[in-house]
Specification:
The structure is a single chain. The chain is an alpha+beta fold. The protein has one domain. The chain is 28% helix and 36% strand. It has one helix at 63-87, and strands spanning 5-7, 13-15, 19-22, 26-30, 38-46, 51-58. The strands form two sheets. Strands 3, 4, 5 and 6 form a four-stranded antiparallel sheet that branches. A hairpin with a 7-residue loop joins β4 and β5. The longest helix is centred in the C-terminal third of the chain and has 25 residues, at 63-87.
Length: 90
Amino acid sequence: MYQNSYTLPNKEKIRVSEISIIGKMNDSGEHRHNPSFYKWSFLITFNNGDIKDVEESYNYSNWGYARMKLEKIRDDLIQAFESYKIFYIP
C-alpha cells in the first residue's frame, strides 16, 4: 500500500512525493567525526534541489552488516518511491 511518508534511520521523516533521485550506494571512506569508523552512504535528491545524505557508520569488523542494513533502507525507499509513482494520479 502506498504511503507518502518515509522515516529515515535518524528518525527524520521525508515525503516520498518530493523525491526526484535516489542515488547509488557508496563507500564514503572515513567518517568525518570519528576516523576509526567508515561509512556507507547514498544521496536522495528532492524536487526542490535539496540533497540528503543517508549514511551508516561501521568499523572494519562489521562492514558487511552495515552495508546490508543500508541496502535494505535504500531498497525500501525505492519501493515506496515506485509505489508512489504507480498510485499517484495527478
